[in-house]
Amino acid sequence: MALRGNRKPMDSKLGILLLNLGGPERLEDVYSFLYNLFADPDLLRLPVPPLQKPLAALIAASRSPTTRENYAAIGGGSPLRRITEEQAQALTAALAVRDIPAQTYVAMRYWHPFTEEALNQIEADGIETLVILPLYPQFSISTTGSSLNRLEQLWRQRPRLQGVTKIVIRSWHDAPGYLQAMAESIERRITTFHEPDAAHIFFSAHGVPVKYVTQYGDPYQAEIENCVDGIMNLLRRRYQRYNAHTLAYQSRVGPVEWLRPYTEDAIASIARRGIGDLVVVPISFVSEHIETLQEIDMEYRELAEAAGIHRFERVPALNTDPAFIEALADLVSQALAPEPPQASPMAIAA
To answer: By C-alpha distance, which of 158, 219, 234, 203 is closest to 314?
Structure first.
C-alpha cells in the first residue's frame, strides 16, 4: 500500500472520495459511456492524439449494439453506482464506530457521478482533509492511474481546493483485511461443493494490454499475482485449503496482445484435464457489474459447461461484505494515522 500526502489534522473536516469506473444505468446511456471510456488516453493509448476522439466515436458506435444486449441481459443497466454508493454509506458507518466522523463521496471515471460532480459537493461541504481511495485493489495506469490523473487535472483548476489536505491511497492489493475478506468469501463458496478439496480455484482478473506492463511500467500484473499468492497463502494457513488454482485475464478489447492466459483459453485447458468443479474468483472486481454478472456468469459459464465443467460456481464480488468494509475502514484509519517519528542518524548509530 502506497500513500501520498500529509496526514489529517485532528480537528479538520474529513471527506473520503471513492474512485470507480462507472457504468451506464440505462440502455440509452451505453453509447455515451463507451465513448467516454475509449476517449480516455490512459485507457486507449494512441500514437496520434488527435485521432483519440474520432476513434472513440467509431469504437463506441460499433460496440454499442452488442453491449446493449449484454446490459439488457443483466436487467437493463449497470448496478455499479448503486453498489458503490452503498459501499460509501457502509464505510461512513464503519468509520463512525471508530470515532472518525467523515463524509464519503463517489467519483466515477466514465459515468455519473463524474469526478467533477463529486468535487462540486466536496467544495460545497467545506472539506478540509480528503482521503482518496480507489476501489481498484491493484494499481493500473488504466484504472487507478486514469482516475487519479483526471482528479489531479480538475483539482488544479479549483482554487478553493488548493488548501485541502489530500491523502491518496494508490494501491492496497496486499492489505491484510482485503486478503482476509477474499479468503473468507472463497472459503464460504468452496464448502458448498461435494468435494471441496477437489475444486479448482480459478482467479479471473480484468486484463490490460501487454505493452502497458512491458513498455509503460504498469505494476498491475505483479500486483495481481502477489494478491493471488496472498489469498492462497491465507487459504492454506487458516483453512487448510491446498486446492490447485489458476490465474487468467478477461475482458480484452481490440487486436493488440493482452495479458495471458485468457480466461476462455484457461477454462478450456482446465476442462481438458478432466477437472469438473470450478470456483471462479473475480479477483480485480470489488463490486458486481457487467464483467461479473454477464461476462463471467453467462459467457464463461456457458463455455465451461460446453467444455465439460460439471459445476461452475462464482464467488460473489465483495460489495458491502462486512469484512471488506472493515478492510476499507482500516485503510482510511492507517492513512490518517500520524507518521511514526524518524530516528536521527546519531540514534541509529548508537
So the answer is: 203
* Phi and psi torsions of 286, nearest 5°: -105, 5
Residue 106 is given by DSSP the state E
Are 250 and 207 within 8 A, CB to CB?
Answer: yes
Coil, helix or strand at residue 131: strand
Calculated CA dihedral for residues 271, 273, 275, 281, nearest 10 degrees: -60
Q: Could you tell me where the DSSP H helices lie in the chain?
A: 30-38, 52-73, 80-97, 115-125, 144-156, 176-190, 210-214, 220-239, 263-272, 290, 301-307, 322-336, 345-349
284-320: burial string, b at 16+ Cβ within 10 Å, e else:
bbbbbbbbbbbbbbebbbebbeeeebeebebbebbbe
C-alpha 113/C-alpha 301 separation (Å) is 32
Print pLDDT tens along the chain (350 aa). 444 444 444 568 999 999 999 999 999 999 999 999 999 999 888 888 889 999 999 999 999 999 999 999 999 999 999 999 999 999 999 999 999 999 999 999 999 999 999 999 999 999 999 999 999 999 999 999 999 999 999 999 999 999 999 999 999 999 999 999 999 999 999 999 999 999 999 999 999 999 999 999 999 999 999 999 999 999 999 999 999 999 999 999 888 899 999 999 999 999 999 999 999 999 999 999 999 999 999 999 999 999 999 999 999 999 999 999 999 999 999 999 986 555 433 333 32
Q: State the CATH architecture for 2-23+78-172+321-336.
A: 3-Layer(aba) Sandwich (3.40)
Domain ranges of the chain: 2-23+78-172+321-336, 176-314
Please choose, from the candidates 32, 33, 68, 38, the residue with its C-alpha nearest in 3D space to the C-alpha of residue 53: 38
Tallying the residues shown for the chain, one arrives at 350
CATH (one of 3.30.720.120, 3.40.50.1400, 3.40.640.10, 3.90.1150.10) for 176-314: 3.40.50.1400
- CA–CA distance from 170 to each of 60, 110, 123, 126, 219 (Å)? 29, 19, 23, 24, 12
